[in-house]
Specification:
The chain has 71 residues and is an alpha+beta fold. 39% of the residues lie in helices and 11% in strands. The mean pLDDT is 80.
Length: 71
């Protein structure tokens, strides 16, 4: 299962990511912050930590990106 907000970049992502069977969307523009079990708080937190971690490296090789994500 994949939970995202309404940002258009996520449209069609479920078909591109292996193993995703369901894509649930919460629409912040409509005042939705959660829909049942669907929310994006965990995802946004991880993304913030990842950005902070990767920022000091200035660029990341695609070869090693999965290793950084696993870390």
């Amino acid at each position: 299962m994949l939970n995202t907000d309404e940002y258009t970049i996520y449209q069609g992502i479920a078909e591109e990511v292996e193993g995703v069977k369901e894509h649930r969307v919460v629409n912040h523009n409509l005042g939705e912050w959660a829909k049942g079990e669907a929310h994006v708080n965990g995802c946004e937190n991880y993304n913030g930590f990842l950005r902070t971690f990767l920022r000091k490296h200035r660029s990341v090789s695609k070869t090693y990106l999965q290793g950084y994500l696993d870390f």
